[in-house]
Design brief:
Residues 10-63 form the F-box domain. With 429 residues, this protein is α/β, with parallel strands linked by helices. The protein has two domains: 13-183; 288-429, no CATH class. It has helices at residues 18-25, 30-34, 63-76, 96-108, 173-178, 264-273, 313-321, 349-353, 367-379, 395-406; strands at 52-56, 84-88, 113-118, 135-140, 160-165, 185-190, 192-193, 199-202, 208-213, 215-216, 221-226, 232-238, 241-247, 253-260, 279-283, 302-305, 310-311, 328-332, 335-336, 357-363, 385-390, 416-421, 425-428. Strand 2 (84-88), helix 4 and strand 3 form a beta-alpha-beta unit.
């Protein structure tokens, strides 16, 4: 009986279907995909089958080399549909004629996802009515506003829009937004907020909204949100605005990350507008709210106080009083105004009936922190998990705290205490 052995020199990768090779090469930056042309004659033009064109100026030796490469890629591209066209030029000034040509070429190839970072941008006429675009990201990499789009937009399939501009959103961003009739996700970043104009968002299809203003003059304007299908809302930076929530019936997740809050009454009104949320994350807000009892969050299941949020223990328990259905509490490295523990006069309903998970990160081992955690252990009757991350850096201290918590009375017989620190890595009991 003779056995014929199959040759071990078969190049299985090269013999894969072009459709599969195209998918593989499209997963990497286009510059690296193009380098496969040196493998063999068979591979010389395989990279031109890519459906993703992803080019960043940084790996190239000079801006002109990068521009020449973009020209070559678009000239040789063999696909009839570009899934992703990403050009990242940071704050470098590319000739407007070049950028216009590249975007026009991508549109002629039925681009679906367009991601452009630039210092100068002039859009081709074909862009304003592009029917294939479903996702768009535009970032102005300079502190000089150059966009002034006069032509009305009509992007009938655009669902995701991420736009970062320097200032004056009414000149560009809002014109673009109004031309997206099926928009579902919007991220708008305004580098410098100095106008008094009201911002009005009436987008019935919108599900996800993120608004960011890193720098803001002390100007109080109005932000009107009429977004009946909104699921998640993220707000960060510095805002000097009165938020008017006209229609928020579907709101699930809210995240606020403020570098500064200059007007407490505006912040209070903002919190009142999102009381229907199921998840709330508060981060880095330099604001003191002396009384949180006026707030009611009847649907809230998940609450986070993240790094730098100024707190006191009274405020935390007032907040818990307003969240009768709360199940998860996450506290990360709080900035305590008064690191002094005072036991609350009454026990919030959620601690008795609903709270199942507590995570306390970056515990410094202060006496007030330990008293808070002991109180929660002794009163949370349905608690399943208490996770504590220590940040003292002292092995002996962390070991002592570990032993102390294991001896604490637990109101819930099913509660598991998990520890993370230098002395014991990760442990649970």
């Amino acid at each position: 009986m003779s056995i014929v052995m199959e040759s071990q020199d078969v190049d299985r990768l090269s013999n894969m279907p072009d459709e599969v090779l195209s998918e593989v090469l499209s997963l990497m930056p286009t510059k690296f995909a193009a380098r496969t042309s040196i493998l063999s004659k068979k591979w010389r033009y395989k990279w031109t089958l890519v459906t993703n064109i992803d080019i960043d100026v940084h790996p190239f030796h000079g801006l002109q080399n990068c521009c020449n490469f973009v020209d070559r890629v678009l000239d040789l591209c063999q696909t009839t549909e570009i899934k992703l066209f990403r050009l990242r030029f940071s704050n470098l000034w590319v000739q407007k004629s070049s950028m216009t040509k590249w975007i026009n070429d991508a549109i002629s190839l039925n681009v679906r996802d367009l991601d452009i970072q630039f210092a100068l941008l002039e859009l081709p006429v074909s862009f304003f009515t592009c029917k294939t675009l479903t996702k768009l990201r535009i970032e102005n990499g300079s502190d000089f506003e150059v966009m002034d789009w006069q032509t009305p937009f009509n992007l009938p399939c655009l669902k995701t829009l991420d736009i970062a501009i320097f200032s004056d959103p009414s000149l560009n961003a809002f014109r673009l937004i109004r031309g997206c009739p099926v928009l579902e996700s919007l991220s708008l970043k305004i580098t410098w907020r100095g106008d008094e104009e009201d911002y009005i968002f009436r987008i019935p299809t919108l599900k996800h909204l993120k608004l960011s203003v890193p720098k803001c003059a002390s100007i109080i304007n109005k932000v009107v949100l009429n977004v009946p299908n909104l699921d998640s809302f993220c707000l960060d930076g510095t805002w000097c605005s009165l938020f008017v929530m006209e229609d928020f019936p579907s709101l699930v997740s809210v995240s606020f990350s403020f570098s500064e809050v200059r007007f407490v009454h505006l912040y209070v009104e903002l919190l009142k507008g999102i009381t229907g949320a199921k998840s709330l994350s508060l981060d880095r807000a330099s604001v003191r709210l002396p009384d949180a009892s006026f707030l009611k969050f009847p649907n809230l299941k998940h609450l986070e106080f993240k790094s730098g949020y100024r707190l006191n223990w009274l405020f935390i328990f007032q907040f818990l009083e307003s969240c009768s259905e709360l199940e998860q509490l996450f506290i990360q490295k709080p900035d305590m105004e008064q690191p002094c523990w005072t036991e609350p006069h009454s026990l919030p309903t959620c601690i008795l009936n609903n709270l199942t998970t507590i995570k306390y990160e970056n515990c410094m081992g202060r006496e007030d922190e330990l008293q808070f955690l002991e109180y929660m252990l002794g009163n949370a009757q349905v608690l399943k998990t208490l996770a504590i991350t220590f940040n003292s850096g002292l092995v002996e201290e962390e070991t002592r705290l570990y032993a102390k918590f294991l001896k604490c009375p637990r109101a819930s017989r099913y509660c598991e205490i998990r520890f993370l620190g230098k002395s014991f890595g990760s442990a649970s009991r």
